Amino acid sequence: MMAETTQTQNMDEKLLEMIGMLTDNMDELKGLLDQIIELKKSGALDSLMLIINRFEEIIQYLFQEPALFRLLSVLVDGSLQAMNKLDAQDIINLKGTIQSLGGCMGKSLNMETLSNAKPVNGVFGLMSALNDPDVRKGLGIAMELLRIMGRCSKQK
User: Fold this and answer.
1) Closest by Cα among 149, 143, 38, 13 to 88
2) Could you tell me the residue ranges of all domains in the chain?
3) CA 107, 113, 119 angle in degrees (round to 5)?
4) Which of 23, 25, 64, 66 has the most CB atoms at less than 10 Å from its CB?
């Protein structure tokens, strides 16, 4: 009976200590939760969890391929600098676009498809290829990407 009372008192003291710590750090905890919520909304938290869960496998692969490791570090650095210029909604939109387009291309694209691609010979071959609505849509997307790249290259 005495041991139970002592154990209950210890638990009560620990609970009071934890409540005090939470109260003392309320602003920091709120800020941390706000950041976690933004990471979740933007999809970055899911990506981070994927990296964390496969971290050992990723690191082993990267150290086997030093050139890939250097390339990845340049891409990550550039991406982080670019992400600093985007707000949460921009990141959400970009993630959705990459997932949709990348997923569709990933399912549709393979070496057999690429090796069986018919070459476009001359202007008449190009005119013939433009009869395909998917080619016209793809060309329109490429033109829009080029327009955006040109506009962005003017900005510093």
Assistant:
1) 38
2) 29-114, 118-156
3) 140
4) 25
What's the CA gap between 141 and 139, in Å, rounded?
Answer: 5
* Measured distance CA(120)–CA(138) in Å, rounded: 15
pTM value?
A: 0.46
How big is the chain, counted in residues? 156
What whole-number distance in Å separates Cα of residue 44 and Cα of residue 86?
A: 13
Percent of the chain, pLDDT > 90? 17
Contact status, residue 92 vs residue 41, Cβ threshold 8 Å: yes
Structure tokens at 154: 């003017």
DSSP class of 121 = -
Distances (CA, A) of 56 to 45, 64, 70, 73: 18, 13, 18, 17
Element containing residue 129 per DSSP (H, E) = helix 122-129
What token pair was written down for 96?
């959705």
